[in-house]
Amino acid sequence: MTPDEQAAGGFGAQKLMYWSVIVAVVIGLLVAGRQFLIPLAVAVLLWSLLDALRGHFQRLGPGGHTMPRWLATILAVSVMLLGVYLVYVILAGQATALQKAAPVYQENFLRLAERVMDLLGIEQLPAVAQLLERLNVGRVFTWLGTAVGATIANIVLVGIYVGFLLVEQRNLPSKIARLHTDAGRTARTRHLALHISQKVQRYMLIKTVVSLLTALVAYGILKLVGLDFAATWALTIFFLNYIPNIGSVIGVIFPSLLALVQFDTLTPFLLVVLGLGAAQFLIGNVLEPVFMGRSLNLSSFMILTALTFWGGVWGVPGMMLSVPIMVIVAIICSHIPPLHWVAILMSADGRLMGTESIESGS
């Protein structure tokens, strides 16, 4: 090996070590700062959704005129607050009923386990029986109460963030203009910010509409079957639908398991599985792609990879945030020539997101 080759190899190893340290530090900061970063990331996405709603309301002005910005803002915020209120009403209204029904479900589950073991021709395992009988439902609900309290605190924090973002939004263009003294770089930065904003807004708006439709259809199916807490399950399915790939599967599994515990026959279980499964498949694989079109152009494998990574770093909130974060990273990389290869790997067909026309909304 020549000295030049040895020097190149040493430089390559040094560069690899350098980037490995950077990646490790970034991941460490993401994990250590999750209590601060998750509410902030959620607030940014909700702000993006509010901005998209405001834009739609502005275009709905009477006589073809644009609705005043302040009125559109009030309407968008009202819609968001109405959604938060409905979530609170659903959860608060069914918490007591769930606590009363938990012991009944526990007994039904014990009987179901005994039936399954009888069918399999084996005796009930003592360890399993003792574990189920010693299950302290009170502790479970204490844990749920603590989790709900923490969630409410985070919701308040997110609301404060969103409020300040709405106030600061008018100053963003002037801030971007002052980032660079060069007019060309300022224009490129403004183009990048607008591109990211439009992509994330489009994704959040379409995903919210599709999730709402899925939740409404699920509520109708569960109500017809007679499953307990149909509204709570529909709300759960609404939020799970933001998790790509596996969210819809989880949204079918858990209500189906409750149907097994609640009813003595398999018919309700089969109806829930087939009904929710068909609804999730048709809406997620037929209707959503029609609305979404080719606007994201993201690789399915890379979406699954991002889902796994952000789920490991930030848990369930990370799973829900994985696609918007991936969109932002892909657009930024498409505007930085040395990182084009990252954007190409993240894309579905090799096209860079940054090469699309913003006005087309494609």
Main sheet record = none
Whole-Å distance between the termini?
Answer: 51 Å
C-alpha Rg, in Å?
Answer: 25 Å
Q: Give the amount of beta strand, in percent.
A: under 5%
* Class derived from helix and strand content: mainly alpha
Order of helices and strands: HHHHHHHHHHHH
Helix run count: 12
What level of helicity do the residues show? Answer: over 70%
Give a verbal description of the structure.
The protein is an all-alpha fold and 362 residues long. The C terminus is likely disordered. The protein is 81% helix and 0% strand. It contains twelve helices and no strands. It has a domain of 115 residues.
Question: What brief labels describe this structure?
Answer:
disordered C terminus, 12 helices, 0% strand, mainly alpha, globular, 362 residues, 81% helix
Could you give the topology of this structure?
Blueprint: H1 3-32, H2 34-58, H3 69-120, H4 126-133, H5 137-168, H6 172-177, H7 183-225, H8 230-240, H9 246-262, H10 267-292, H11 300-334, H12 340-346
Helix pairs in contact: 2-3, 2-5, 2-7, 2-11, 3-9, 7-8, 7-10, 7-11, 8-9, 9-10, 11-12
